[in-house]
Amino acid sequence: LSQALDGFVLVVTSEGLIFYSSHTIQDYLGFHQTDVMHQSVFELIHTEDQPEFRRNLHWALNPPHAPEGEPSPEVGKSLGSSAVIYKPDQLPPENSSFLERSFVCRFRCLLDNSSGFLALNLQGRLKFLHGQNKRSEDGSALPPQLALFAISTPLQPPSILQIRTKNMIFRTKHKLDFTPLACDAKGKIVLGYTEAELQMCGTGYQFVHAADMLYCAENHVRMMKTGESGLTVFRLLTKENRWKWVQANARLVYKNGKPEYIVVTQRPLVDEEGGEHLRKRSMHLPFTFATGEALLYQSAHPLPGFPDPSQSKGKPSKSKKPSCSHGGRSQKNGIDPSSLLGAVMRQDKAVY
Question: Rounded CA gap, 322 and 319, in Å?
Fold first, then answer.
């Protein structure tokens, strides 16, 4: 049922804690289900929309305000959302139309590069959340409280292409130099590799199309400076020696204030989408990464074996063909195997 929805299920307690989210939240916001459950919902909501969400959590649309300087009981968990305990006889009956909710809020979205937020329409109702077994300070059991049970759907309906690909979003984990460390089950299906095959090959750039390498490296550097790469569209080499377009967003994960590893959320694209991104990219650059080898490698002449550009059949990717045919040259020429050029030379020319 959750896969059939055009959105995800969200259950939020009256204090603003996410009690439950369906795993499909990852398809829309990029966050894993376990990243958000039992966290404050207000950490995901745009600052300007937080009062509206807080208002809709209250049965009378009129949440009490904690006096200034006095934190509410749950302030640590819910960013100041008040945690007032009501007795059932103080509340309207659960089937009351007064408890129905429909409103719009902007949520943080790792998959969106334009603003970093996705506008969601939340439709549902306040219902009693049973089985919490919470106790008051004197030890007596507290009655169940109202929580928001809602289906969250994007305001802008997804395109057919997005619907076709949304179920194959996958995540990979990398060292800071991008060496692959782990890949989830969906990633193994999309790419065809086992984790061991991904780990044994080097920095990970050898899985990236030669025409996309500098573009990826530029966003890699941006991520090391800012913590997030922004949306990056490029081609990955699958086990079957085919190129798969993906839209990726990489984030640094910190431990004790220091960057420890990189997590990348990736969504497969169809070739038409990838080609459209490539056209936009080449418009922004002084030359296309696909055909500027002489400039890239500061060489007056292309590397031995590069074909004459006039012979390539219109596909920019073909012009890189021979750079992969010198697998043994990288050491002889003093090229660092972990460099971008070293990664290109380790690739099999057949994949181009």
Answer: 8
pLDDT of residue 22: 93
3-state secondary structure of 171: strand
Encoded tokens for 238: 């699958």
Instruction: Look at residues 339, 343, 286 and name the one whose alpha carbon lies nearest to residue 320.
Output: 343
Using CA atoms, how far apart are residues 210 and 303, in angstroms rounded to an integer?
Answer: 14
Residue ranges and CATH numbers for the domains of the chain are 1-61+95-134+143-158 (3.30.450.20), 163-283 (3.30.450.20)
Q: 108 and 122 in contact (C-beta within 8 Å)?
A: no
Polymer length of the chain: 352
Count other Cβ atoms within 10 Å, centred on residue 173: 16
CA torsion through residues 325, 328, 334, 340, sign: positive
pLDDT of residue 76: 37
**Strand 117-129 versus strand 100-108 pairing type:** antiparallel
230, 204 Cβ separation under 8 angstroms: no
* pTM score above 0.85: no
- Is 77:17 a contact under the CB 8 Å cutoff? yes
Instruction: Quote the distance between the C-alpha of residue 257 and its chain's center.
Output: 22
Contact 130, 143 (CB under 8 A): no
pLDDT tens, position by position, 119-143: 999 999 999 998 877 888 888 888 8
Give residue 219's pLDDT.
92
Residue 46 has pLDDT above 90, yes or no: yes
Q: What is 7-54 written as a DSSP string?
A: SEEEEE-TTSBEEEE-TTHHHHH---HHHHTTSBGGGTB-GGGHHHHH
